[in-house]
Cupin 2 conserved barrel domain-containing protein
Amino acid sequence: MCQQVELGKLSCVSEDARRAICEFTFKESGGAFQDFLIRDGSKPLGQHFHRLKEEIFYFLEGSGIIHTALVDKNGKITGPVKKFEVSKGSVIRITPNQAHRFDLEPNTRFVAYSSKPFDPNDMVACPIPIEV
């Protein structure tokens, strides 16, 4: 088992008027570290699930609500929609086949560790209905 130290810097992988995402991928493990900044919280983010990737989010600033729901192999929601309030200091783990939707305040900032780097082929759209 190789135990190398990896050092790198985050680079922007996705940016638009709503949010910026920067990422560093670890070559040996294949995991990734991301930094998210929410600029516009008027529309939900996420609304998808991953078949292979686990994500752990840690909130540095701001607040909001995360909705999650289990999905089957076809992407159909199979369990109840769960609601989690997050704020500075909150940590939440999203497992594979767990659809997630983020409704966050502007200027919310959080970091994440993902078991795999960003892969558009492992990001399956799955709108989560919520009661208003």
